[in-house]
Predict the structure.
Amino acid sequence: MIRALHLNRPRASQAGITLIELFVVLLIMLMIAGGISRLLLSSWQSQDTITTQNEMQRRAQKAADEVVDRLRGATEITAGDSTSVTALYGNDDSVTYYLQNGALMRDRHSQATGVTTTDSICSSVSALDLGYLVRSGSGWATAATAVLAQSVKISVTLTSGSDRATESSVVKLRNKVSV
């Protein structure tokens, strides 16, 4: 009986794992590695999406700020509609913001030299919305025309593929000449 137990025990040269056991372990390791790689890929894609959205939001904010900063010093709005605005300054220079072929454009006209300079402020702009406001009691109301505006509401929307970013701001014309 002792001899029978001794025969069933593998010798030192036979100790180890079988080929089937090795394949099972490899299959389990591959499944774990596949899960981890999918998790990492998903994380990288999410990070890329968030980075793109943040960059678009930053660009939209910068474009809106450009318009706001420049309009703040205007003495009057000489023309404007829902997609363009022209402002006049104390030195009779003027600036016009408008949307053209997906870009927010700025025309600066110097009265002293008679030269108009055109700049692209931001690309990938899908919408520029402007609203003109006047003081009405303790609040604000829509101005009958852009020329009467005391404040301008600006909204800039950027689109890239399926990503979209919109920034809005309101600017009061500090140097508005009252009539």
